[in-house]
Specification:
single chain; 704 residues; alpha+beta; Neuraminidase; Methanol Dehydrogenase, Chain A; Rossmann fold; 3 domains; five-stranded mixed beta sheet; 19% helix
Length: 704
């Protein structure tokens, strides 16, 4: 009787109308619990000052610039005191979308070498502030400023406006254009779509250490096909033009220029193609160097890393800033594709190499920086965790973090800013010479539901899996319908020992009467090269197999999971996985919600898609096997498609073409277009409502 009463109460709670503050509304208002979280840490070389960006609390969307010094934090610049915000330049909006930045106000900044002076752009206006507490002041510009960068000595600021690179003195005088675009599709100092979205290179200009010159990226998008993204809810507005290099089509031409502040410039002579004698062979090879992976300028001079179109070869280059000549300082090859550890190039150039001090097994995630002879890096010896390590030649390596979680750090002088996300907490601790020197506040809200994932290792492949059960459920009392909520694709893990937002969302679904399962299968990071490259040529079959294997193994261990009622939901690659699951395995999956799903893989960008599937003209079978449009006739289960109509990453054509094919095949399905929403949906009234609509769809489809 008591158990029946508990179940009845839970059902009534799930059926209640939305209150003034339910979990979905909190989820939207906190922007996935990202507001109030400190980020973008910069530590001064002497270790005395730490700069960072954070909103005032867990609800404020406006980022402020903060300073931690002498054991205390204080606001350095509050954007609310700088006048009424204006319109954010389109180039800045694009930069934020690529960085998945959902906040406003001050979201990024740059400093001089000593971290005494700071510059930032606010709604296109250029501002300068000092860490001494002096009032911020505006600097005049030739137009709306994007991506300002301070010279190391703090006397000059570079910025981009109208696709041109400018410099202005920090006293506000001497604004001049250093590099002007030669045509409407050429830019200096901005990042093209592929570099920002798929390669992960966010920067396109670097000052010389003496402040006399810059290494600058030049992008020519004229070879790239134009796509047009319109807003159907505003037919009065012209379509937005996208230079989008879809798989198999032309990339932007990316090159480098060294320009002195007096205006003298020299083009960097990048190599055109890899040495065919050492370049790996394959069904499709393209040795042309089309990708600029990294650039920079240190005490030894400018440098760059370039990668071939097929991503199997990369060269590290030293650049002569006077002649523009380059010298190859390193060659890298891989039969599948090359991936680059963040910070590794700079670490190698400085002579610091933690590799010899690593134990066998851990996968290095990033090189964080160095202090003296000690190099700090992150690595995983268990896929669900990432820890901070230190390596000193002669002494070897030391793991600095012990509590299960995902840890990272920022380094400067003898100071380490340790950012630790564990299942139950998120802390930022400042260590000075290894001793605690204070904490930086994490002001994000705690979710109204408390995630309680069970971390499992399932099946013969030891698939890392998180299982969420209702807090009110008692073993053996009832069979629970299952919702699989995985990402499952390259570059992202969901089965991690943190309090990440997706854990709270999954627990919320569980509280509505589901068992929720999240699986990191083949192709996801953290388990070595063989695991990561096992999807080469086929991004679908092994990924789907792992979801099914984990589901069955979980059901064997937990008999309350009802494998006769299994739904699947996801976003981006997770949405693709959800739609593919009901198309190809309706015997296992009985309903799906597919959000922002790339259903026609030939419509996705060159670098990301050719990495896994090759060239669509040479290996069309890979695209035919993995794309969903050609398999639309197989649908026999309930399917809901959701897509932002302003999505410039997975463009709405994916959803529309798939829906068209489903209609042509006579396959009923649901479509929910999100007017004005991009790939990153966080708006209140949209993000929260989507959770409720997904819940209703899955309940109705699964008879829950």
């Amino acid at each position: 009787m008591e158990e029946n009463t508990r179940k009845k109460t839970a059902r009534e709670k799930a059926a209640r109308p939305r209150t003034a503050e339910d979990f979905p509304l909190q989820f939207a208002r906190t922007r996935r619990f990202s507001l109030g979280v400190p980020k973008n840490f910069t530590v001064s070389p002497d270790g005395e000052r730490v700069l960072f960006v954070r909103t005032a609390d867990g609800r404020s969307p406006l980022g402020s610039l903060w300073l931690f010094e002498d054991g205390e934090e204080r606001v350095l610049v509050d954007p609310r005191g700088l006048g009424e915000p204006g319109e954010v330049p389109r180039a800045e909006l694009v930069r934020r979308e690529r960085a998945r930045e959902s906040g406003g106000g001050i979201v990024s900044y740059a400093t001089d070498a000593a971290v005494r002076t700071v510059v930032f752009a606010l709604s296109g206006a250029l501002w300068l502030a000092g860490t001494d507490g002096s009032a911020p002041r505006p600097l005049p510009t030739a137009g709306p400023a994007v991506d300002p960068r301070l010279s190391p000595d703090g006397t000059l600021v570079s910025y981009v406006t109208g696709r041109a690179l400018h410099v202005v003195r920090t006293d506000g005088t001497g604004d001049r254009r250093l590099l002007a675009p030669e045509g409407p599709e050429i830019s200096y100092g901005l990042t093209d779509h592929v570099s920002a979205e798929s390669i992960g290179r966010a920067r396109s200009s670097w000052w010389s250490p003496d402040g006399s010159a810059l290494l600058v990226v030049r992008v020519d998008e004229s070879p790239v096909r134009h796509w047009y993204l319109s807003d159907p809810s505003h037919p009065d507005k012209a379509p937005r033009v996208l230079a989008y290099p879809a798989a198999g089509t032309a990339n932007a031409v990316v090159s480098l220029v060294v320009v002195r502040v007096d205006g003298e410039r020299v083009a960097v002579r990048l190599p055109r193609s890899a040495d065919p004698a050492t370049h790996p062979s394959g069904t499709w090879t393209d040795p042309a160097f089309e990708y600029l992976v990294e650039g920079g300028w240190d005490a030894a001079g400018p440098y760059a890393t370039v990668q071939t179109r097929d991503q199997r070869t990369a060269y590290d280059l030293a650049v002569d800033p006077v002649s523009g000549a380059t010298e190859v300082t390193g060659r890298h090859h891989d039969d599948h594709w090359l991936e680059f550890t963040p910070g590794a190039t700079a670490s190698t150039r400085s002579g610091a190499c933690p590799g010899d001090g690593l134990p066998s097994g851990p996968e290095v995630r990033a090189i964080l920086g160095s202090a003296g002879d000690t190099v700090y890096f992150t690595a995983s010896d268990e896929p669900t965790e990432t820890h901070v390590w230190a390596y000193t030649p002669g002494s070897g390596r030391t793991r600095l973090t012990q509590e299960p979680g995902v840890h990272t750090a920022a380094v400067g002088g003898g100071t380490l800013v340790l950012d630790s996300r564990t299942p139950h907490d998120h802390t930022v601790t400042v260590l000075r010479d290894g001793r605690p020197a204070g904490r930086i506040g994490v002001l994000s809200e705690r979710p109204l539901v408390t995630p309680a994932p069970l971390f499992l290792s399932l099946g013969e492949r030891e698939l890392r899996t998180a299982l969420y059960l209702p807090s009110w459920h008692r073993e053996g009392a009832a069979r629970l319908p299952v919702v699989v909520h995985s990402y499952g694709g390259p570059g992202l893990q969901t089965v991690v020992r943190t309090g990440a937002w997706h854990h709270a969302v999954n627990q919320w679904f569980a509280e509505q009467g589901f068992a929720v399962l999240s699986v990191d299968g083949r192709g996801t990071p953290g388990r070595g090269e063989a695991w990561r490259t096992s999807i080469h040529g086929d991004q679908l079959t092994p990924v789907l197999e792992d979801q099914i294997d984990a589901l069955r193994a979980a059901a064997e261990r937990f008999p309350d999971l009802d494998t006769g009622r299994v739904g699947i939901r996801g976003w981006s690659f997770g949405g693709y996985l959800a739609a593919a699951a009901v198309l190809h395995r309706p015997d296992v999956f009985h309903a799906a919600v597919a959000g922002a799903a790339p259903t026609d893989l030939a419509l996705y960008d060159t670098h990301w898609k050719e990495r896994y599937l090759g060239h669509p003209d040479v290996q069309p079978e890979n695209y035919e096997r993995c794309s969903l449009v050609a398999h639309a006739h197989k649908l026999t289960r309930p399917l809901k498609l959701v897509h932002g109509m302003a999505d410039d990453n997975v463009v709405p054509a994916h959803m529309l073409r798939f829906s068209q094919a489903l209609l042509a095949a006579g396959r009923p399905h649901s479509v929910l277009p999100l007017a004005g929403q991009s790939h990153m949906v966080t708006a209140e009234g949209v993000a929260d409502t989507l959770l409720w609509l997904d819940l209703a769809f899955l309940k109705n489809s699964l008879g829950a």
